[in-house]
Adenosine kinase (Drosophila melanogaster), 345 residues
Amino acid sequence: MTSTLQEGILVGCGNPLLDISAVVPLNFLQKYSMNEDDAILAEDRHMPIYGELVEGYQAEFLAGGSVQNSLRIAQWILRQPRVAVFFGCVGEDRYANILKEKAQAAGLDVHYQVKKDVPTGTCAVLITGTHRSLCANLAAANNFTIDHLEEPSNKALVDNAQYYYISGFFLTVNPPSIMQVAATAHAKQRPFLMNLSAPFISQFYMAPLLAALPYVDIIFGNEAEAQAFAEAQQWPSGDLREIGKRLVAMEKKNPTRPRIAILTQGCDPVLLIQQDSVQEFPVTKLAVHEIVDTNGAGDAFVGGFLSQFVQGKSLDVCIRCGNYAAGHIIKNPGCTYSGEPEFVE
Ligand code: AP5
Ligand code: NA
C-alpha cells in the first residue's frame, strides 16, 4: 500500500461466528441429514453437532463469520490497521474473546454488540475430503439490533465510511439495519456491496434480499448462489452469464452507477458482469497437494477485492487481488493467512 487510507473507510455488518472445524466421516453428515456442500442454519436437531465435534473429532477453533472473514483478509492485505470497521453481535464469553483477539490481530476495528445471556455464535465446518459442509448456530449473532448502529459513536462510524459491505447471511438477522446502512450509502452516493452468501438466502429470504437489492452497487456470489437466485426468480436460463446480466439489470436506486455482478466459479474464471458485457478473469489452479481446504475461499476473494476497491483501484486489480487472496487462504486452514501478503498489482 502506498498512501495512508482514512481510518474506518470501510464498514461491514455480519454474524461474528467462531468456526469449529473438523474432519468427519460421511455418516456424521448422514446422521444430521446434511449434504457434503451444505451451508445451513442450525435447527434444534443440529445442536449436538458442536459438542460432538469438540469431544470426538479433534476440532479446530478458527475465527469465522463471512463478513468478518472478508474484512480480516482485507486488513491483512492493506497492512494499515483500522481501515475496516465491523459490527455484529456476540455473547460475553470465551468464544467472543477469541473472535475479538483474532479480528484485532488482523487490524480490524470491531464494535460488537454484546448480549450477556446468549452464547457467541458458532459454525460447524464439517470436512469430508475436499468438501465442507457448514451449519451455523447464530446464537448471539441473531440478536443484533438496529439500536447498536444508532449509538452516536457507531452512527458516526457509519456516516464517515466511504464503502459498505454486508452479507446476504445478515438478511436472516436484521434487515432493518441493512436498509439503514443502504440508505446512508445511497444518500451519500457511496458504494454499497452485498453478497448472495448461500443458496438458502435466495430460497427463503428473497423478500428482504429484493428490498435491499435496489441499493446494491456490487453483488458477489458463486455459481450455486447465482443459480439459486435465478430459480427463485423463475428465470428460464441456467446460464451463469445470463443470470449475471439479469441481476445487474434489476431495479436500481442510483441508475447513474449501474450495478456490477462478480460471480466466482471455483477454479474456473471469475465473471465480471456490467450491463451487457461479461469479462473473464482466470484463476491460477492450485495443485492438489497445495490445497489445505477451500473453506473461506469466497470470503477471502471478497476481502482481497475490498482491499483494492477502497484504494480506488480498477475492477481489474480488485478481482486479481480477490483471486490472490482466495488462493492464499486455500493453502491455509479455514479462512486464515500466513506470512506477509505478496499481491502485486
Ligand atoms: P464458506 O462457504 O466455506 O466460504 P466461502 O468463503 O463462501 O468459500 P467457498 O469455498 O464456499 O467458496 P465459494 O464457493 O464462495 O467460492 P468459489 O469456490 O467460487 O464459508 C466460510 C465461512 O462462512 C465460515 O467461516 C462461516 O463462519 C461462515 N458462515 C457460514 N454460515 C454463516 C452465516 N449464516 N452467517 C455468517 N457467516 C456464516 O471460489 C472463490 C475463489 O476462490 C475463486 O474465484 C478462486 O479465486 C479461488 N479458488 C477456488 N477454488 C480454487 C482452486 N481449486 N484453485 C485455485 N483457486 C481457487
Ligand atoms: Na482455507
Summary: The chain has one domain: 10-15+65-119+139-330. The first helix runs from residue 26 to 31. The first strand starts at residue 10 and ends at 13.
